[in-house]
Amino acid sequence: MLPWQNQKHPSLAEPRTKEQWRAYLDMKPPPRPDMPSYAIYRRMGAEVREDFNEARHDHHSALVIVKTPVMKRVHARIAEKMRANKHQTTGPRRGFVLDGQPTVGKSTLVKTFGAKFELTLRRRYPERFSSQYVQDGRLIDYTPFVLVGLQSNTTPKNLSLAIAHWFNQPFRSAVTESEATEKVIEILNACGTELIVVDEYHFLNMESKEGKSVNNHIKHLSNYCPATFVFAGHDLRSSGMFLEGFAKRRPTQTSMRNSYHNIGPFQVNTVAHQRQWASVINEMEHALTLFKHESGSLATQHWRYMHDRTGGSIASLSELIRLAAGRAIDDGSEKITRNMLDTIEIDVYSMEAYRQLTKSQSGQARKRAQSGHLQVS
After folding, report:
1. Is the pLDDT of residue 368 over 80?
2. Is the residue at 116 inside a domain?
3. Domain annotation covers residue 77
4. Residue 252: alpha-carbon gap to chain centroid
5. Torsion of CA 199, 205, 206, 207, to 10 degrees
6. Per residue in 237-274, pLDDT tens?
7. Average pLDDT over all residues of the chain
8. Are residues 232 and 307 in the same domain?
9. Is residue 233 part of a domain?
10. Residue 228 β-bridge partners
11. Burial, 330: exposed, middle or buried (Cβ in 10 Å; 0-12, 13-18, 19+)?
12. HEC readout, 86-155
């Protein structure tokens, strides 16, 4: 083995097993480095300064996840659903569908809820997490949360295998669909699973036989596992998820068992919405470690410009600020300005939308429209 091969990647991939999920829960973000005076920073030797700047880059890379009003609202609704389901005696639990266009933060919303849910259980019932036993040759331990993502070729069998993979429970290659399903139901019940998130649900083609089979398969799992199911994806209302195919009107059990919640990008068409958007920018700004940046200046002076640049997408906003912070360190300016932001390239969708917007406005009119101070509450 080469010397570097036993070193873990400094970050984590999307969790696909309970062990990876636990590593995600236990991971501490890079600490905010202690900031010396700018004069001391300037006197640092080249290597010391390089290491200090790398620590700042690491900190900015894991920029704070802002608890937006949307996040708080969605978390509250999922918690309500779980409380209503908790002691239901028999039958499938009611589920929750989270719909919205890409980059509005759906996956982050469900993962942060899952993290909060499990960490609360760790605090209340530590003994549950220290107990293990073997059942039919399989190690069983308390696993209250499961996260699986669908793919374009998902079948009922490989969905069951994906859930089994989360539990690190291998199946023989010749296992049948019904055998895999029954084993997964046994595992979910034995491990005390209370919350199952199925992400990327838009990958199901509900006009296809396979897509309908997977949808029915999930309903079967929910019939026999006392867990709350949360489904996340985009364009789910029009995907046929709630109907028997696209063209028919007969509602499925999916529409009768689940509540539907749609989230979109931040809007700034009211003063209240403007302040919410600015407060998100402000919270990200306060996490920055730049010597000359006036904290809060982006939130109060350039909030509308940053909304135009990102379309109100939290993911795009985070990318814009993280890239700009890195540029400010590397070029020595130590601050983020409007002119610098104009040079930062983010995701193609946001860049193209901004170019289309700017085509419809003259330069001076755009500057006026994007300027103006806002008091951040």
Report:
1. no
2. yes
3. yes
4. 28
5. 180
6. 877 676 654 445 545 666 678 899 999 999 999 999 99
7. 88
8. no
9. yes
10. 195
11. exposed
12. CCCCCCCCCEEEEECCCCCCHHHHHHHHHHHHHHHHHHHCHHHHCCEEEECCEEEECCCEEEEECCCCCC
Region of 136 on the Ramachandran plot (φ > 0 left; ψ -120 to 50 alpha; else beta):
left
In a shared domain, residues 30 and 139 = no
Distance CA 34, CA 59 (A): 11
Q: In what order do the strands lie in the sheet with 228-233?
A: 145-149, 195-199, 228-233, 95-99, 258-262
Alpha-carbon torsion (26, 192, 188, 229), positive or negative: negative
Q: Does residue 38 sit in the same domain as residue 90?
A: no
Tokens of 242: 């709630």
State the residue range of the domain holding 55.
13-67+267-370
pLDDT of residue 61: 95
Q: What is the pLDDT of residue 41?
A: 98
Count CA atoms closer than 13 A to 16's CA, side-chain side: 8
Which of the listed residues 213, 243, 262 is the one where a domain comes to its end? 262
Asked whether residue 238 falls in the same domain as residue 291, the answer is no
